[in-house]
Amino acid sequence: MRKVLGMVVSVLAAGCWAMAAVPPPPQGADALPELRGEIAGRLRPMGGSLAATPLGNGAARLPVNFAGTTHERVSWDIPVALDASGSPGVRFDFYCEDISVGAGFCCYFRAKGGWYRAEFSPERNGQWETITINKSRTTSEESPAGWAHIDTIRVSVWRGGDTDTVCAIANIGLMGGGSPQALVVRADSRMSADDPESKSYASYAESVSATFEKLGIPSVQVADLDLTAAHLEGIRLAVLPYNPSLPAATAAALEAFVKGGGKLLACYSTSEEALRLLGLRRTGYVVAEAGAFKGFAKTAAGLHGQPDFAPQGSQRTMVAGAAEGMSARAIAVWRKADGTDSGTPAITLTPTGAFIGHVWFKPSSEQSVALMRAVTGELVPSFWEQAARETFGRIGKVAGAAGLAELQARLADAPAAAKAELARAQEGRAAAEAHIAKGEWQQSLAQSTAAAEAALRAWCRAQPARAGEFRAFWCHSALGLGDRDWDRAIRELKEAGFNAILPNMLWGGSAFYPSDVLPHHADLAKEGDQVAKCLAACRKYGVEMHVWKVNWNTFWCAPKSFLEMLAREGRYQVTYSGEKRGEWLCPSHPANQDLEVAAMLEVARKYPVDGIHFDYIRYPDDDTCYCDGCKERFQKRLGRPVADWAQTRRDQPLHDAWQDFRRASITAVVRRVHEGAKAIRPEVKISAAVFNNWPVNRDRIAQDWKMWCDNGWLDFICPMDYTESTMVFDGMVRQQKAQAGSVPLYPGIGLSCWGDPRDPVSLIEKISALRKRGAPGFTVFNYDAHAEAVLPYLRLGATELQMTR
Q1: CA 300 to chain CA centroid, nearest Å
Q2: Are strands 150-159 and 182-186 parallel, antiparallel or unpaired?
Q3: Are 566 and 583 in contact (CB under 8 A)?
Q4: Any bridge partners for residue 547, and if so which?
C-alpha cells in the first residue's frame, strides 16, 4: 500500500511539474522540416518517463519525474529521417527549470546498427539556451552506420536525486557550418564492439578537430561511411587522423580531391591508398626507446613558423619514405627520451600533403599548436589569413565576455596587476589590427596571441583565493610528471598554491614500491621506490601525500604469472551472461578482500604518509559478479538456494538482497581498512574517489559511500564530478554536501577529461562554485602536461600563495 501511495504522489507531483509555466521558446531558428509545428506527439517516452506535452510554438514540455521513482534517467525518442553527414552537428533550444536535478544531460543519435552519443551542458536555470552537439565530440556505441542515416534522436536526463523538475525542447535542426576549409575523416567504418580501437578512432579525430578550432580554421568532421565528392566541395585540406583502412567510395572521393588540387594530411597507420596519394611508401614501424619519444624536433628542412621543438609523448611511429619517382622531405624527426634527436622522420611533407608518423594528440603546449599551424599553413597558405582574423576576434573573450571592452568593464574594480594585463592586451590588439590591415598575417597572429594571453591573465589575476582549504591533484602516473622527478613535480605543485597530492602507487596486481603483498611493477627495479621518493619531496615542500590505490582492477600492469594464478583460483569477475572480466577481481572472494586490505595497510605501516586513498572501490557496472563463488556465497547469506538467477533482476525482494550482498562485499574492505589503518597510525587519513551520483550508484556499482561517511570510515570524500558544465557541477556539490554529512567534501574536478583540458577559466569557475557551497577543498584530475599548462594561471589568483594583493 505504501508503495502504491508513493507512486500516486509521484504521478501527481510530476503532473504539477508538467503543467509548470515555461516561457515561449526562441523564434526564428531553422528546425528540421519534419519537426516544425507541434512535436510533443512525436516524442516517445522510455521506461518510467512521462509523456511530453505541447508547449506551443513548436516546443515540447518534458516532465522529469525522479521523486518517488527508481529509474536512472528519463528519456524521449524522436523518430527522424536525418542526413547530418555534411553538417558540423545538431542544434536545438533547451530549457531546464532546475539543472541540479540532473546528474547529466545526453543526446543520442541512432544510425541503424548503433548510436552516436554526446553530453550537453545547460548553464542557466529557468531559461532557454541553444545547445550545439558537434559531431566531432561524439562517441559511438555498437556500430552506427554514419551520420547520413540518423533515424532516431534520444534526449536523456540522468538522475541526480529524488526531485522533480521540468525541461523543454524546441527548434531541433542542423548546425550552420559556415564555409569549412578543412575536413576530418573519422573511421566510423571500423567502429564496432569487437574492435578495441573503436574509441581511439573517435578520440584522435576529435583531437584534430579541437586543434583546428584553436587555430581558427573552420572544419567539419565526416564519417568515412558518408564521405562523397559533394562533402569535399570547397574543402582545401582533408585529414585522416587514424584510418587504417578506407571504404572504396571514400578512397575514390579522396583520390579525385587530391587530383583536383586538394591537400591531404594523414597520420600513423594510414591506408595504402592514402600513402599512394601522398607519394609515399610504408617502410616500417619504430618503437621508442625508454617508453616514449619526447616530441617533434625541427630539421634543417623545417618550415617558417615551425617551433624548434613541440612535445608529444608518442610510444611508436610508422615510417614512410618517398615512393619511386616521388619527392618528400622530413620537416621534423622524433626526439628521444634522453633529449637527442633520433633521425626517425616524424612529419614528412610531399607535393600533395603531409604524413605524421603517429596519431596527433590534443596539444599540451603552444608549441604543439604552432607546429600544426605551420604544417597546415604550408599546405594551404590561405589558412594564415583565416587564423589571423579568427585569433584577432577572440581577444578578450574570457568567461563569457563578448570581447576586450566587456572584459575591461567587468574588471573595473580588479587589482592593479590585472589592469596592467588589460593595458597590455589593448596594446597588443591595436598592433594586431595594424598588421591585419597590411596583410601581415603571421605578425598579426603573434600580436593577437599575446593580447589574448594578457586578457586571460587579467581575468585570472582578478579571481580571489581562499585560505585554509585542501587543494590537491590526483596523479595517475606513479613516476611523477613527465620527465620531471618527484622533487621538481612537487615543488611546482606547491608553488602553484596546492598542498596535497594523491599519486597512484598501487593497483589490483602491482605496486611501485617494494611490496611484500603485491607483485612489483616492472619499472620498480629501474626507477626505485616511488612512494619513498614522492614522500621525501612532499615532506621537503610541505605537501600532504595520500597514496592512491586502484582497487580490484589489475588492468595492464600485473605480471602474467600473477594473472594466471588469479584465473586458476577463480578470482576474476564474471558477467550475468557468463563472460569473464579478465582484469577485475571478484569483490566477494575472501582472498581478494584480504589482498586489498593487506596492500593498503602495508602502505600505512611502511611509510609515514598522510593518508591512503580508495579508487575503483566498486563493481564496474550492474552486470557482475555472477561467478560460482559469488553464487555460493550469496545463497549461503540468503539461507536458501536460488533456482533461477534471472530472478535477481526481476524479483524485487531477491534483487534487493542481491544488491545488499554486492554492497556488503565492497563495504567490508572499506571498514577493514579504516579499522586496520587507525590501529596502525590513528592520524592517517582514509579517503575515497567515488562516483558522483550516490542514489544511483549505490545499486548500479554497489558503492554506498554515504553509508561509509555516516559510519565515520572516511576522513574525506572526493566525488568525481567531471562534468564540463559549471551549473551541473554546482548541483552535484550541493547534493553531495548533504550526503557526506560531517565528512569533509573535496569535489573532484575533471580537467583532463574535458574537451579542452587546458582551460583554466572552467577550472577556476568550478573552484569558485564549490567555495560558494561551503566545500572546504577540492581535488583535480589529473596532474599531467595539461595541468602544467593550467597551473600558472591558477597561481595568479584562485590558488595564490600570497593572499595579499
Answers
A1: 37
A2: unpaired
A3: no
A4: 612
**Which residue from 165, 169, 166 is spatially nearest to 90, judged by alpha carbons?**
169
Closest of 70, 68, 110 to residue 655, by C-alpha = 70
Element (H, E) at 568: helix 560-568
> Of the candidates 348, 340, 333, which has an alpha carbon nearest to the alpha carbon of residue 286?
333
Query: How far apart are alpha carbons 486 and 783 in whole angstroms?
Result: 12
86: which DSSP letter? T
Instruction: Give the separation between CA 606 and CA 222, rounded to whole angstroms.
Output: 54
Count Cβ atoms within 10 A of the Cβ of residue 804 and give its class: 0-12 exposed, 13-18 middle, 19 or more buried: exposed
Residues ≥6 apart with Cβ < 8 Å to 645: 576, 626, 631
- Whether the upstream peptide bond of residue 711 has omega within 30° of 0, thus cis, is no
Q: In this structure, are residues 649 and 723 in contact, taking their beta carbons and an 8 Å threshold?
A: no
Helix intervals (H) in 682-794: 694-700, 705-710, 726-740, 760-772, 785-794
CA distance 178 to 235: 12
In the structure grid, which three cell numbers stand for residue 304, read together?
A: 617558417
pLDDT given at position 802: 61
- Per residue in 755-795, pLDDT (tens digit) is 899 999 999 999 999 999 999 999 999 999 899 999 999 99
Q: How far apart are alpha carbons 49 and 65 in whole angstroms?
A: 7
- Structure-block grid coordinates of residue 267: 597520420
- pTM confidence score: 0.90
Q: Which three cell numbers stand for residue 283?
A: 617502410
Q: How far apart are CA 321 and CA 316, in angstroms?
A: 17
Contacts with 200 (C-beta within 8 Å, 6 or more apart), sequence order: 242, 359
